[in-house]
Amino acid sequence: MQIDMNEFYLRIYGDPVLREKTEEVTEFGEQLAPLVERMYEVMYEEEGVGLAAPQVGSDLRMMVLDVPLEEGGAFRGVLINPEVLETEGTQRDEEGCLSFPGIREEITRADRIKVRARGVDGEPFTFEANALLSRAVQHEIDHLDGVLFIDRMSPVRRRLLAKKLKKLAEERTAEV
Ligand code: ZN
Fold it and tell me: Would you name the residues annotated as active-site residues?
């Protein structure tokens, strides 16, 4: 597994890497540390609560999270090869994405979820999530499948955003 740190910068809508499916992580431990560190760095720079590897140009199936919890505190951690085992109910709330600066839309997601993932050390664990944490995990897992939150919007909302999306993609190419 080659990790080129110069490749890890925030990818904006229009970058083809955001549509690629990720690869299961099979090698754990220290070698993941530079990528994890860079993902946290980008997430905090942009004041996000979650970031998936494709958003910094990596094809690994992993995400970082730092989500404030309703009951206080925060869920901070790395989820590798995450899977949703169970879902219950639905929730609808406003959602943003670091790869879509300036765009926020109401998205329907599962309310409560049960998740299985591995940590950086490869150890599997499961946990249950609701509210924002549940939403963030579902949003980031979508990224790992090349699915973006615009895909979850109604066709009408997406049409209304068409100009903004076009501009985002154009600005992105202009910068490169
Ligand atoms: Zn996102």
Answer: 140
